[in-house]
Amino acid sequence: MSKYLIATAALCAFAASANAESVRMSVGSYNLNNLPFPVAESLGFYEEEGLDVTTENFAQGGSKVLQALVAGSTDVAVGFYDHTIQMQSQGKHVVGFIQLARNSGLVLAGTNDTDFDPEKPETIKGKRVGITSPGSSSDFFIRYYLKQHGLTDNDVSIIGVGSGAAAVAALQQGKIDLLVNYDPAATIVVERGLGKILIDARSDEGAKAVYGGIYPTSVLYANQDYIDANPEVIQKVTNATVKALHWMNEHSAEEIVEQLPDDFVSGDKQTYIKAVEAAKAIFSTDGKFVPDDLETPLAVLKSFNEAVGKATIDLNTTYTNKFVEAAAQSAAN
Fold first, then answer.
1. Per-residue b/e over 17-43, b at no fewer than 16 CB within 10 Å?
2. Which is more confident, 56 or 215?
């Protein structure tokens, strides 16, 4: 390539960067429910849309991201849909605008010698249960399980242990007896022989057994005020993320992992590929919310969250499909 062409390309790249619209995006953890976000980032889809994304990974769980969004220190959250319901009960208008994971992806794992038997729920009494963080969807999972079986959170100790390697280490080191978490932690626990999965909500059948229905999880959400003020940014974020969902649906787990930076991959690569393969079924292929499925997280929250239980929740205002529909229309033209 001539020096002139190299210089021209550099100037174009600089101009594109200079004209890019800034958006701050925060993620609660790099569990696999959130995988379409780093895939979109790694493949350059946000950049292609003319966005300059600043990413913050809180690692402790989705509740920390929610706090950042409400405080105004981030623009778009990569978190779980049920937080939009939670916020509505507190008089705050947080809206999901693209669904990443259409199902839970959560498992409850225990050590190999655990005496907890899901068929005998009372055997969970006295156990130390690891979750990602208080107020997270893993927290909702265990509290709902307890509630459904006539137990309370006083019957166990619920401990925040994060996700990924940190969560696995907590189980391995005996800091907890049971772990409620996502892939890759779920697959790592089994592949390393550290424990076994006792309740599996990654499949549709498993989710229905645990929750009574499909439980949408990871979404991109933002404050309604931000969406109203920045519809073009939201549309570009949506366009890029829909591309990532389509790309993931058309590629193997191995090809997906190849696109990720090394520091994103928890554990050894082959185990991580197995984790992605196990999680593929939970991902949305088009990013659309299914209204009937949203009833499940509402029912779960109402069962133990007093604020949600007392509030009149309008699910129609917790999500919008208009940006996803616009992205599909644009792609078709």
1. eeebeebbbbbbbbbbbbbbbbbbbbb
2. 215
pTM: 0.85
Is residue 47 left, alpha or beta, with left meaning phi > 0 and alpha meaning psi from -120 to 50? Answer: alpha
Residue 152's CATH number: 3.40.190.10
Q: Are 24 and 74 in contact (CB under 8 A)?
A: yes
Question: Does one domain contain both 251 and 316?
Answer: yes
- pLDDT score recorded for residue 136: 81
* Residue 34 main-chain phi, psi, to 5 deg: -90, 5
137-148 vs 204-211: helix axis angle to the nearest 10?
60
Q: Are residues 76 and 171 in the same domain?
A: no
**Which of residues 161, 181, 211 is at a domain's end?**
211
Domain that holds residue 130: 107-211
pLDDT tens digit sequence for 221-279: 999 999 999 999 999 999 999 999 999 999 999 999 999 887 778 778 899 999 999 88
DSSP for 129-198, written as a single string: EEESSTTSHHHHHHHHHHHHTT--GGGSEEEE--SHHHHHHHHHTTS-SEEEE-TTHHHHHHHTTSEEEE
